[in-house]
Amino acid sequence: MKAAHVKEAAEEIDSRDEVRARIIAAAADLLADGGREALTTRAVAEAAGVQAPTMYRLFGDKSGLLDAVAEHGFARYVAEKKVRKIGRDPVEDLRSGWDLHIGFGLANPAVYGIIYGDPRPGVTSKAAAAGYRVLEELIRRIAAAGQLRVNEERAAELVHAAGCGTVLSLLAMPEDRRNLGLSKSAREAVIQAITTGQKPTKSLSPASAAIALRALLPNTKTLTSGERHLFLELLDRLARESE
Fold first, then answer.
1. I need a labelling partner for 175 at 20 to 30 A (CA). Which of 54, 105, 108, 161 fits?
2. Are 171 and 112 in contact (CB under 8 A)?
3. Would you give the DSSP letter of residue 84?
4. What angle do CA 93, 98, 104 make, to 5 degrees?
5. What pLDDT is attached to residue 239?
6. What is the per-residue pLDDT across 183-196, written as a single tens digit (0 to 9) for each?
7. CA-to-CA distance for 58 and 13, rounded, in angstroms?
8. Contacts (Cβ under 8 Å, ≥6 apart) of 142
């Protein structure tokens, strides 16, 4: 008896996933053909062959559906591209990530508009949050390689703002007047602003980083005497990890 219930539950889950995928696919097609205005609850339900309550049960509300469509669109775009694997130079990986972001936005303007075109303070879509986490990881790798000129938070904010601004600016231009050289120039300007221009350090451990920072500490005028003393003590403790 228990086995029968398990089987029924599994079939229900499979059916739920299938219906969810069908709704997302229908919504993505409507979005591509008619833009965001075409994504009415009635139109999506009819295209997917479901009732409106089913959509609310699976996605909560229209925002939930839009997030799912955006995630689906980006995942499909990445799957169709030969995404560059993580290399030895994290700055080059950032360049590849930038180009992927720009390419996705230009190829999928309606989906991009869902993710980034309607900013609301304190509200971030799941797709946008996932993309930002990828960016933060790229920036963290640059910092760990000793190539970051500014702090990680500032660097990520600059790259994000410049990348989104570049896509939205290009989308606002007539297609026959879009110059992708604008993207390259913006990309290199941001990279120059946030990185040192030095080659990546092959193996920068916390201890070696502390040793290097301790040697450079006398060059800074930012810290007070007390702060400098405390910071030196902390750096010494980190440096001793190599002993």
1. 161
2. yes
3. P
4. 125
5. 77
6. 999 999 999 999 98
7. 12
8. 90, 91, 94, 148, 155, 194, 195
Write down the pTM of the prediction.
Answer: 0.75
Burial of 129 (0-12, 13-18, 19+ CB in 10 A): exposed
Please report the beta strands in the chain, taking only residues with DSSP state E, as ranges in sequence order: none
Tokens in use for 144?
A: 């760990």
**Are residues 127 and 71 in contact, defined by beta-carbon separation less than 8 angstroms?**
yes
Q: What's the distance, Cα to Cα, between the start and end of the chain in Å?
A: 63
Q: Provide the Cα torsion 38, 102, 74, 89; round to 10°.
A: -170
Residues in the chain: 243
pLDDT for residue 162: 97
Segment 1-5 shows an average pLDDT of 44
65 close to 55: Cβ distance less than 8 angstroms: yes
At residue 197, the 3 state secondary structure works out as coil
